[in-house]
Amino acid sequence: MGRPRTNDATVQARLVECATELLATRPQESLTVRAVATAAETSTAAVYSLFGDKKGLIGAVRDRAVASLFQAVTAVPTSEDPLADIYALATAYRRWGREHSHLYSVLFGGVQSFTPSETVGIDDPVRPLIAAIDRALTESVLDGEATPIAVSLWVTLHGLVTLELAGAFDTPTADAAFRSTILATLRGWTTPEMFRSLRHDEPAP
């Protein structure tokens, strides 16, 4: 009779969870297989058996974060107003960051490096944003190129969410800063005609 399998999906999920929490507070270079195994109450052999090595474990944490964010932004419904859709996607991104602070830190926190992909894959969280921006460009609502517009919005969002998670704002201040800053960023990319209308009729949150 063979030995019972102990390195199962439950152990795998626990290791990813513990690695996520540890990576939220320290650089990946200082993370050790032993520290993760100890936190997960298992052996280092489990890490090597399930993930191959530390790099494989960190990759699993990153994959989990990307999949979770992708699920959040793709759940945002599409309307006839591309600017409203972009704002809704920004809101979903912020909400995900607040509800998954450990995963957010792993993906975008200062203790980790992050290199955006040069191509947008089918499961890339930026895909819904690019699609909404493309619609806005086609409808002459925004003026420019999709990638620079998306980057400027992400830079703005990242700054806002990072400061909020760091406790720099109370909730009312964070809410007001989010709305005014995202709308100002959108206005900066609008066509002249749309800019004038947005001064009086901003897209609904």
Q: Key features?
A:
mainly alpha; elongated; 205 residues; single chain; 10 helices; disordered N terminus; 66% helix
Structural class: mainly alpha
Radius of gyration: 20 Å
Shape: elongated
Q: Which range best describes the helical content: under 10%, 10-25%, 25-40%, 40-55%, 55-70% or over 70%?
A: 55-70%
Number of strands: 0
Please provide the ordered H/E string of secondary-structure elements: HHHHHHHHHH
Number of helices: 10
Percent in strands:
under 5%
Unreliable stretches = 1-5, 110-117
Distance, first to last CA: 61 Å
Sheet of most strands? none
Mean model confidence by pLDDT: 85
Give an overview in words.
The chain has 205 residues and is an all-alpha fold. The protein contains ten helices and no strands. The protein has helices at 9-23, 33-39, 44-51, 54-74, 82-99, 101-108, 127-138, 146-165, 171-189, 192-198. α4 packs across α5 (82-99), α7 crosses α8 and α8 packs antiparallel against α9. The longest helix has 21 residues, at 54-74. The relative contact order is 0.11.
